[in-house]
Each structure stands twice: as C-alpha cells, then as structure tokens.
Amino acid sequence: MIFLPINIPSGNSFVFCIPCKKEVIIFGYEKYRLMQIGNVTVEKGVLLAPMEDVSDLPFRVMCRRLGADIVYTEFISSEGLIRDAKRSLQKLQLADEEHPVAIQIFGGDTPTMVEAAKIAEQSEPDFIDINFGCWVKNVVARNAGAALLKDPPLMASMTRALVDAVKLPVTVKTRLGWDSNSIVILDVAKMLEDAGAAALTVHCRTRDMGHNGSADWSWIPKIKQVVNIPVILNGDVTSALDVGRAFAETGADAVMIGRAAIANPFIFRQAQTYLRTGVEEEPPTVEERIDLCLTQLKMNIAYSGNEKRTCTEFRKFYAGYLKGLYMASSVRRDLVQTSSYAEVETRLWQYAEDLKSGRLHPADNYDTHNAEPEQVAIV
Ligand SMILES: Cc1cc2nc3c(=O)[nH]c(=O)nc-3n(C[C@H](O)[C@H](O)[C@H](O)COP(=O)(O)O)c2cc1C
Questions:
Q1: Which terminus has fewer CB within 10 Å in the chain: N or C?
Q2: How far apart are the C-alpha atoms of 344 and 360, rounded to whole Å?
Q3: Phi first, then psi: what are they for 289, rounded to 5°?
C-alpha cells in the first residue's frame, strides 16, 4: 500500500491511500508547517511575545536557550528612538545568541515610525514588528498601538511606508478589532498583506477586552483563509498542550506566548518536546528552577550594571520560578526584600535544602498556599 501525504490547510493528519483512492487519517502524522519571514524559517514555531519590562535581552536569551524559536523585544517608542532617548536606544541592544529576534516599535506618526524603523534596522534584527495592539490608555491616546484599529487605512499606509523604507521584513502584531462590534481583523489582515507585511501576529482579543475574557482562536483559520502570509496565534497559550492544541485546531503558522513564559519560562522546552514527541515533559526539578532563576538574575545584573535595582525589578519572576512548590510564598516574601545576588542565591539554595531534608513544616509559620504570580504591568 502506498500512502501519499497531502498538504491541507488545516494541518490535520491525512494521507492519500493510492490503492483505495481514499483519504486516510494517520495518527501521529502532521504536515510540515514551515513559516518563513525573510531569512528566518521555522517549523511549528513557538515564539516569545514582546512584553514591556519583561522581554529584555537576558530574558530573550534565556527563552531562546529554552527553545523559543523567535523572540521579540518589548515595544520601543518611535518618538523615543528619534529623540535619542537613552532608555529607548538601550532596548535596541541585541545579543548574537538571541537571533532570530524581532525589534518591535510603536507610534502614531508615520514619518516618525519610518525614521525609528531605520534606526532599529541598524541593530540588525531579523525583522521589524509594528505594534498595532497595545491597549493601554497613554499609548492609544497618542494614536498608537490599538488606536490604529480604528483606522485600518492608516495601519496599511504606515506599514507600507516602513516596508518601503527598510530592507528587513516588516511584520505586524495586532488584535481582532477595537471592540466586539468592530471586529476588523479579516479586512485588516488583507490590507496589511497588500501593504507588504511579511507576517501577522493576532492577539485574539479586542482592544476593549484588555487582558480580560478569553482569547478567541477561532479567528485564526478565518484569517488564514484570506491571506497567504504567515499568521501567528497569540493569546491564552498557557502550556505545552495548549501549543499543540493551537496548531491542531487553528492551522496557525506559529504560536506566540506571553504571560505563561513569565510564569514558566520552561514552557518553550516543554512545548518543543511535546510537539516533537507527543510526550509531556516532567515539570522541572527545584534545582533546575533555582539554577535558571539565578542564571537569569545574573544576566540581568550584568546587563543593567545595577545589582540593587535589578534585584528589586526581578521580583516579578520569583512567583513563576517557585510556582506550585511547597511553601513557596514564604521564600517569595524573603526574596522581595533582598538587594544582592548573594542573598538571593543563599535564600534559594537554603529553601531547596529545607525541602529535601523535610525540614519545612507548616508549624514553622510558613504560608502553605502555593505561590500566585506577582502582579506585573499588563500592556
Ligand atoms: C507585562 C506585559 C507586557 C506587554 N508588553 C507588550 C509589548 O511591549 N508589545 C506588545 O505587542 N504586546 C505586549 N504585551 C501583550 C503580549 O505580547 C500578548 O499579546 C498578550 O499578553 C497575550 O498573550 P498571552 O495570553 O500569551 O499573555 C504585553 C503583555 C504583558 C503581560
């Protein structure tokens, strides 16, 4: 019997059986899903989302090491870049190790965005991403981010201007629409493709949802029907199983992960294992978590050059590294008061030691609840 694989848009597992002239479902077979953006080609890519104050250079490097196929910088203000603002320029710094990497910029004024894209291009990212999805008031008030969802022709003309101005591919990240009464993504997707966008990431919520409610992945196959450029699914992907489900259910070309990577940076490794083998990895050991946490902290200190400030800013990551561990909240409470790497290191290894030896006991006045993620600013 000869089985001939057929490529079908949904990416389901079908082959064509020549003698029977029938399509047959073969479990475990999936069509290759190669996504190409400029010189970057990834198969079933799992991407790190742009996240302000999170997706900095050390975090991106770490997520790449853990298996993220492409990483994005946090969004960078186009106005800041052309003003030579120190903080914006610092965000352009990329490490060799993190490629493929995209620099994301935002702004409401096309000439400023064009200039900013040219500046960003000098850092030699693999592509430039435009943020048309940020929902926060001070961005929207400047007619940037998701504000452009109210003006799709401007979105398209701005995209075209950037595509014409830089040699690198230009991609776009946006939402479904402004609100549930104005879901414009199908028109917008087509307009952006016509404007030369090399790929489109869709956070499957509307602007007025912010981060509330559920991301509606059912839009992804509809978008895939109207455009030929890669469509990247984003929103509420929280586990390796979700990644598998997102590919299987939607035919997305890649999946982008945001908050779940803060809570569990191992998600990239777990997703890669699951996608390649269909097997779920065991959760990381306490030692692995502590090792990675300390590596990230060390990289952050080296990057910022300010140990004390970095230890303070690093608080948002402790909840993720300790999530679900016995009496983790007590450790977190101690860690948020630390101001040096040495203190963090000592406290974490002491905790690991206590766990191993069984010394931790509820009677020690520890809070027995599992750690909950810290509140981080949500853009
Ligand atoms: C702390 C934080 C910062 C964010 N900053 C950005 C940003 O700079 N640019 C952007 O396009 N989206 C930003 N987002 C949105 C994420 O990229 C992503 O679209 C959103 O979190 C939904 O994906 P998730 O459910 O996987 O988190 C941010 C989200 C969070 C939580």
A1: N
A2: 18
A3: -60, -45
Catalytic annotation present for 311: no
Q: What angle do CA 336, 374, 86 make, to 5 degrees?
A: 75
Q: How far is CA 228 from CA 37, 181, 253, in A?
A: 12, 26, 11
Give residue 134 CA to ligand 1 midpoint distance, Å: 8
355 neighbors 325 (Cβ within 8 angstroms): yes
The per-residue pLDDT for range 18-36, each reduced to its tens digit, is: 444 444 433 444 455 689 9
Q: Is 52 left (phi over 0), alpha (psi -120 to 50) or beta?
A: beta
Mutation probe of ligand 1 site: the residue of 47, 52, 106, 243 with most atoms within 8 A of C-beta? 52
Q: Is 330 in the pocket of ligand 1 (CB under 6 A)?
A: no
Q: Domain 34-277: give its CATH superfamily.
A: Aldolase class I (3.20.20.70)
Q: Is 30 in the pocket of ligand 1 (CB under 6 A)?
A: no
Q: Where are the domains of the chain?
A: 1-31, 34-277, 286-364
Closest ligand 1 atom to 129 CA = 11
Tokens of 171: 């991609």
Question: What's the pTM value of the predicted model, to 2 decimals?
Answer: 0.87
User: Does the beta carbon of 136 sit less than 6 angstroms from any atom of ligand 1?
Assistant: no
Q: How far apart are alpha carbons 364 and 92 in whole angstroms? A: 47
Q: In angstroms, rounded to a whole number, what is the distance separating the alpha carbons of residues 346 and 340?
A: 10
Choice from 259, 317, 375, 376 to test ligand 1 binding pocket (greatest atom count within 8 A of CB)? 259
**Given the CA of residue 203, which atom of ligand 1 is nearest to it?**
19
pLDDT digits (tens, 9 = 90+) for 301-328: 999 999 999 999 998 899 889 988 888 8
Q: Round to the nearest angstrom and report the end-to-end CA distance of the chain.
A: 54
CA 317 – CA 376 distance, rounded (Å): 9
